[in-house]
Each structure stands twice: as C-alpha cells, then as structure tokens.
Design a protein that fits this description.
single chain, 2 domains, 15 strands, four-stranded mixed beta sheet, elongated, mainly beta, five-stranded mixed beta sheet, binds zinc ion, 2 helices, OB fold (Dihydrolipoamide Acetyltransferase, E2P), about 5% helix
C-alpha cells in the first residue's frame, strides 16, 4: 500500500440531478482516487470539505462537497444571490395592514432569519389569502435569495414557487 502524506484535492465526479434532489441522508457523490484511479462513493455531508479514505488503496484525500440544492431557511444567508429550494415549515404568517404584503416566516425568529414575502398585488396568484392557507404547512419554496435590510428574503411572485408537502 502506497502512503501519501500530503492531502490532495482529488477529482470529484459529481453526479447531480435525480439522485441529488432530496434532503434525505442517502446522497452520495462519486470520488475518483488520485492514487489508484478507482471510483468510490462518498456520502454527502453538510460541510464544505471532508477528508475521505480510498477503500481500495487507503489513500486519504480532501474533497469538496457539492453545494446543496435544497436547504433549510436558517442557512439562506449563506446563499444570497442564488436560486435555491428551501424546505421547511411556515411557522407563522403575517399580513402587513399597511402594505397588504404577506410575510411567511420559516423560523419564528424572523428578525434574525428574514422572511419569504408575497407582495399585495401577487396575492391573487396564491388564492388571495396565503397567510391563512399556508400557515403551519410544510413547504418547499423555490426562488432567488436576496438580501433585504441585512436579512435573507425570497419574493414570491408565482404560485409555482411553492410546493405544499403536508
Ligand atoms: Zn485509491
């Protein structure tokens, strides 16, 4: 067995798509060992990089984890400017009596985590009263995460951006 002291970055053949959609724990990426050239599967973890050991020759390597497609709302601030799918529960809704905009909060601490917001003129696309129909629902929300007053926000302009899971 050849030992390599330096930890090198190896080629990661990321196969995204159908196998990478879910939030579940059973996601893998295929890593290619830079020493023996064989492929092996690495479970995806919620970290930027992980150190792995080739099961064929024992060589250690540091590999980059793929950026997740589906994230929890509490991680949204890490992805400002990016299109993401948020999975979580709308724990609280609020309709601003002045603007009539509807705020969907996926964390009760909206002052820290921000909100998903539907503007008053778009309420009709969401059945008129999304503050009632979406409260308490587990959802997937798709959209671009933007910064609003220092906190993450997604503007919902189309009902296709929300999928109610339960
Ligand atoms: Zn190897």
């Amino acid at each position: 067995m050849k030992t390599v002291s330096a930890i090198l970055v190896i080629t990661v053949l990321v196969s995204l798509g159908a196998t990478m959609g879910a939030v579940g724990q059973d996601k893998f990426i295929n890593a290619k060992c830079f020493n023996c050239g064989k492929l092996y599967r690495v479970p995806v973890q919620d970290k930027e990089t992980v150190v792995v050991t080739c099961p064929h020759c024992g060589t250690k390597a540091k590999i980059k984890m793929p950026e997740p497609t589906v994230i929890a709302w509490e991680k949204a601030s890490k992805y400002i400017g990016k299109e993401k799918v948020i999975e979580g529960k709308i724990v609280k809704t609020y309709k601003d009596p002045r603007s009539n905009n509807v705020y969907l909060n996926l964390n009760p601490d909206y002052k820290t985590y921000g909100s998903v917001v539907i503007k008053s003129e778009d309420l009709g696309k969401f059945g008129g009263t999304p503050e009632a129909t979406l409260e308490g629902k587990k959802v997937r929300v798709k959209g671009k995460i933007v910064e609003h007053k220092g906190k993450p926000r997604i503007w919902l302009t189309d009902s296709g951006q929300v999928e109610v899971l339960e």
